Amino acid sequence: MVGELQGAIIAAGKGERLRSAGLDIPKPLVRIDGETLLARQARAMMRAGAREVVAIVNSETAEIVTRDRIDLPEKLRLMVRDTPNSMESLLALHELLAPGNFLLATVDAVIADDELAKFIEQAHALSTSREVRAFDGVLGVVRWRGDKKPLFAKIAADRHIIGLGDEETPMVTAGIYLLPTSIFAFTDSARRAQLSALRRFLSMLIDNGVRLGAVELSGVIDIDEPQDLAAARIAVEERR
User: Is residue 46 classed as helix, strand or coil in its secondary structure?
Assistant: First the structure.
């Protein structure tokens, strides 16, 4: 564990691909082993050292949490905002983050505790190194397994991410990040460029000279399709 962290979760999406398959509930409230994805992600961050976690959810999710009295961690702070896309969700979280680095995750990135701890340790080392030029931020990456609509990462030998996009490479982003709040200086530029997704914002950071490093992880499951949910449930069961 590396010091104290502030955690942030992007959970304002509608989960349209899951809903089109018949799962009529916001993705953050889908359950694995009896626990919602939102609570699960927040508690994982807290076990990893986050002193507080903030999450952005849409109004539908917030209403269901209140109506059904869904259990959430005490130190999880919700921001209710109906944002048009994942980039705007990230930018909105800036309002609740103190200056410095923050651990960011999408709500649907299911990761084991040991893998999250590994990411935090290595990301901290890469962002504070005095032996080589430190990275401004670090992204978790995994080997592409054929999932749909991944964000491919082009990575140099020194773990420097030199490109993010649709061009196929062996590695894709995993939905886990350690980022500095200084990235929010690019908010106006991103909006002027009419960017409409977190992936585009990250790519813009690289284009503007922000140094992003990569930590390879294994076993992270990004839940977009029903088969992803099934795989995550099996993985969690096997770890018990």
Answer: helix
